[in-house]
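User: My advisor, Dr. K., asked me to get a structural model of this assembly before our group meeting. I'm new to this, so sorry if the format is off. These are the inputs:
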Amino acid sequence: MVKVAVLGAAGGIGQPLSLLCKMSPLIDELALYDVVPALTGVAVDLSHIATKAQLNSHLPTDDGLKKALTGSDFVIIPAGVPRKPGMTRDDLFKINAGIVETLATGIAQFCPKAFILVISNPVNSTVPIVAEIMKKHGVFDPRRLFGVTTLDVIRASTFTSQLHECTNPTQYTVPVVGGHSGLTIIPLFSQAEPAVKLSHEAIKKLTIRIQFGGDEVVEAKGGSGSATLSMAYAGFKYVYSGSFLRQANLLHAVHGEKGIIESSYVHLSGIPGGENVSKLVGIDYFSVPIELGPDGAHKAHPLGELSDYELNLLEKARPELKGNVAKGVEFISQKSSKL
Ligand SMILES: NC(=O)C1=CN([C@@H]2O[C@H](COP(=O)(O)OP(=O)(O)OC[C@H]3O[C@@H](n4cnc5c(N)ncnc54)[C@H](O)[C@@H]3O)[C@@H](O)[C@H]2O)C=CC1
Ligand SMILES: O=C([O-])CC(=O)C(=O)O
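Assistant: The format is fine. Below is the predicted structure of the whole assembly, which you can bring to the meeting.
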């Protein structure tokens, strides 16, 4: 019996993500939660689909969050405001930090053992917020908390394949490490498979395109939001992969499949192999390829040998990422110290 809760289910990401979850034969119960009444219509609409997942939806009234979360094995969080042109992800902190704090408090109370997938931006800060809340409640397990950076990996495959005039982007795997905003996003082309045939100048341009891929969508949408459909795909891909998707991931790993590796932004200490990465980068939160298992993050993979260019990217990423992490941690610790 697998229960998945989507928090922010009536939104631009939440709706297509819920649709993808409703299609999954591995999900038995799908609980939708949002603060807007439009959720009810979304839920009735989805409930007409003849698939296995039993659907229920909850607004904050009548203990809605508690009902959505109780018994959940996976909680996916796309709740919060998206960017408009000219904004950075950090500009979303003011509103989204409080939203994520409230939802994380619910998770700590009602389903502390769930796997938590944080989509809400700024991911570099919202994941530390969730971790601090879980710590506060004495239920933090770093192996069960993931910042979803899958979209960066997907973009790296897509954009790289375009430059190689390849018709099947899934053939390119480019590890992307670091965080999920601008300069903190570090594609590792030296470790691409198959090896990329690009000049250094082309790799530099491609790196910038991946780092600012989100801005491309924000600008194209002209004020109506940021990536929703590609993000729903990315979020779903992280949780579940059916026969129509290439890679397997968390749901399969939890069911005992071995050797499943997906990158995500994690709290490195507490994940085997994570301490080594943390020492190397000097930050405790970082996105790295993670081997997934029944308990979640089974092993954090080392960064491998980096080119001089990639080492330079890491140097540039470090101060911003450190600041983003500290901002999330302090957001919770300042509140606790006022109590
Ligand atoms: N990690 C990633 O790669 C990506 C992250 N995002 C982020 O995902 C978030 C959501 O984006 P969209 O779906 O486009 O926004 P949206 O505005 O379309 O949807 C957000 C939903 O969250 C709901 N919500 C607000 N407060 C809530 C609360 N306290 N509890 C439950 N639900 C609440 C809203 O009612 C709305 O339905 C944004 O922060 C965005 O920046 C977007 C794309 C990629
Ligand atoms: O750019 C944004 O604000 C949304 C996002 O995180 C992405 O598309 O990678």
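One thing worth pointing out at the meeting: The radius of gyration is 19 Å.

User: Perfect, thanks a lot.
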